[in-house]
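hey so i finally got around to running both of the ones u sent me last week. sorry it took forever, my laptop kept dying halfway thru and i had to restart like 3 times lol. anyway pasting them below in the order u listed, first the sequence line then the structure token line for each. didnt double check formatting much so if smth looks off just lmk and ill redo it

first one:
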Amino acid sequence: MSNEQSGAPSALHPYRSHTCGVLRAGDAGQAVRLSGWIHRKRDHGQLLFVDLRDNFGITQCVIDISSPLFEALEAARVESVITVTGPVVKRAPETVNPQVPTGEIEVRVEALEILSPAELLPLQVNSDEDAGEEVRLRYRYLDLRREKMHEKILLRSQVITSIRRRMVEQGFTEFQTPILTASSPEGARDYLVPSRIHPGKFYALPQAPQMFKQLIMIAGFDRYFQIAPCFRDEDGRADRSPGEFYQLDFEMSFVTQDDVFAAIEPVMAGVFSEFAKDRTVSKPPFARIPYAEAMLKYGSDKPDLRNPIEIADVTEAFRGSGFAIFAKAVEKGAVVRAIPAPGAGARPRSFFDKMNDWARAEGAAGLGYIVFAEGGAKGPIAKNLDEARVTRIKTEAGLKDGDAVFFACDKAGGAARLAGAARVKLGQDLALLEPNCFKFCWIVDYPMFELDEQTGKIEFSHNPFSMPQGGMAALENQDPLEVKAFQYDIVCNGIELSSGAIRNHLPEVMYKAFAIAGYTPEEVDSRFSGLISALKFGAPPHGGSAPGIDRIVMMLADEPNIREIVAFPMNQKAEDLMMLAPAPVPAERLKELSLKLDLPPE
């Protein structure tokens, strides 16, 4: 349907002279043309008000019942796309809307064209009403018209633009790496792509550009980056999309670990500061916490430094003590971790009972505790410890009267997991987290190897291509479980944003590291042929990292679900409800690819 009033200014652009977010009181009297979606309509009898929306904002338009266009505009459904033409008019003082930038004016409709009528909507665009995830994903293009969603997707674009600019300012050059490549040793499942011209062979979508970015360094380029798509066939969760995600992938030549930190910290701090609004951001240099210290103090290698609680080792206070459960466990190699609960001494008994119930739900036997009061320590554990041991625990855990402390007793790994989870829970339950801030840190000095408790075999703990601290001498002369690597993670508010490393650029050191993990030279040559061959032709010392774009945007948007900051995400079952993917493939296409299906029974 098209309906134009005669006499409309002919010099105007056919769709718009202005966007819906720019008109102000100073534009009064000007003839304008706007195009957009009907966001909301209000019929006041003699007057019809229409909020017209585009990417840039909302402008109120008004039409009088005497206009021959009144019925057409009144009949147009919400979300129909229209063009209106007319003069800008100042609103009466009592009708000014200070909530929107265009709230001082309105456009009097003198010409109207219905560009695209809308059917009845499956979800409301002009409302924050939750239509449910299935409906939102099936009609994602409508969901993205909603103001909050629109702003989050624009924020994502702005963050990426800011990152690109800051990386270029740091001397990095943007490269693109292949999407069709070979299967990766990253650890997750690959997405495989069958080759038509090589029957029975498959490409893989890259889990990360790890090999290629190292090859770019070996090729003689110095500082590489890209906003890299990565593909992993793994289950979705709140902070991880099934299928694909994006990362700021970067690599540098002739650098130490300190050089990598110095290059990326201004980028991360700058981007977060730019979009932090009223939140504070850690200033470089960020805190550096050795892995072993992080596991002791925070029970995690992803510590949330907004939480002031620090776990303490109180094993010796229980060794040979009257608290037999812990004392016997310590003699068998267990450790005891103390998790302070500042100010919890005044909490009712039910608080401590609930913590015990929570610990049992986590698979532990429970959480013992002591309450410190002016009259002395209280609780079942305190009754079985002499005063000197109680005082030692109080001192080592940094506690005072009015505080409480919980205990985790287990092998080191199990005690760290329970204590770390209890620290997080207590920080939340006691409202201890510092508000409105982003606190960054580096976790450094990761162990190069770890012991698989089930098989008893030594395997890589983090990244097999990292340079061991001490190089070949460390691999030849140290207990493998004592060797540390130049590996590091960047963490913000308890969320891991990136893993990285100084790479192993020496073939002989790589062969030795893989031999310790049970690989023969032939297996290394076969599985990593591109990289190991390149290293034999002169490779510079190099290193890098890859902060996750999705998680950065999630944090800046204060959004716990990754699907809220991705334009077209899949659901948790890795299904695209809008495009109906994955989908069956016709038999002739499978034949062309030399494939036959062997489906599991229904």
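and the second one:
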Amino acid sequence: MNTPLAIIIGIVVGIGVGIGLAFSILKKTITRNTSEALKNAQDEAKAIKKKAEEDGELLKKEKILQAKEKFLQLKGEHEKMVSEKNQQIAAGENRIKQKEATLNQKMEELNRKTADNTALKEKLERQIEANNLKQAELDKQTSIQKAKLESIAELSAEQAKEQLIQLMEDEARAEAMVTIKEIVDEAQNTAALEAKKLVIKSIQRTGVETALENAVSVFTIENDDIKGRIIGREGRNIRALENLTGVDVIIDDSPDTILLSSFDPVRREIARRSLEKLVSDGRIHPARIEEVVAKTKKQIEQEINETGKRTCIDLGIHNISHELMRMVGKMRYRSSYGQNLLQHSKEVANLCATMAAELGLNPKLAKRAGLLHDIGKVPDTEPELPHALFGAQLAEQYKEKPEIVNAIGAHHDEMEMTNLISPLVQVCDAISGARPGARREVVEAYMKRLNDLETLALSYPGVVKTFAIQAGRELRVIVGAEKVTDEQADKISFDLSKKIQNEMTYPGQIKITVIRETRSVNYAR
């Protein structure tokens, strides 16, 4: 048992001694390698330091050289700049010297001229003194001669001057009256001729269709059975249609015909189209009637807007208010004395543009005023003002130019005219209304107006016969030559025109012609 233990102990001791020897050898080896590595690192560091110092010296020398080169370059540029400045200063000094020399020369010339002027002034003063002496002597001689003339003529100078001035004034006034009469006569003849040419040319160049409107629209149906369906049970359908459209629906014994009566063309058109849709659809009852009438009103409103827009585009009128454009569209469903209002307004607009171009006025402005002149006839509400004044208010409200506002308000002489466009619109309105076939009048009213004209003229003393001609546009009055003088005939014509203007209502204007003639009749037998 002791022997193995001793062996084990010996082995352990041997192993420990071996490990110690091994650590000792390894330590010596590491120490030796570390010393060599440290020495090598030191040598390498010294070499790097030496190389860095050498590179630094080279870089330092290079930078110094670059700095010297930059300095030399800047120095050369500075010297060049200084040289240029010196040259500029020298040139400026030369210019100053030249200007100074020129100024000295001008000063010498000015001094010389001043001396000459002084001498001339002295000479003129001497001449003025001499002239004053001569004038005094002349005034003295004039006074002496004037006194002699006054004693001979027994008139003072002032009295003679007044008589001469009066004589010259009388002669000038007589000559002026003759000249004025000739100018007025020539202007009247020329103006009448030119006005006729201008009106005829404008009418020839302007052609607008005339549409006559009635107060009744006729709706044609296929058979009389539809009448009962339109009337409905106990008349509820026809009552609903009349209440919704504001139109009187007249169903009588006329075959295949229904009458729609209303003074409002828009309402009649709504009723006609609504009936057309109801009959074609076949469903006729109050609820359906209300639906169809509402849709038709909306459709008519759209057509009114489209008509106004298209009319303005066709006439070349731009930048007009949407509300005024809608009123222009409403003119399509209005009439005046049977003449369609939209066609009448378009005709007046074209006539105004044509005449304005001939007269050298603004044709676009005249055309705009012509189109809008009757805008007061299509209001959404019933105004208390005449349509011309109400139209002027509408135009002013929607920012139209003052010339157009005045032309609208003055085309029936209800407002004072302030520009040349206003009488132009008035004339063109009268031309469009007076054109043959344009308007329809009731025969009784037409005949009454002619009789009233003739009766009014016969009420003046000395009037023998009267004739209303040209559809009441002209009144010819024949007076007795032995009872009425030429001056009285002029007065009758003037007074009669004023009386007709104040007491009667008529379209356009009426020409009054008073005829006074003397006839000497004999017979040779």
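quick thing i noticed on the 2nd:
Residues 207-213 have pLDDT under 50 and may be disordered.
anyway thats it, ttyl
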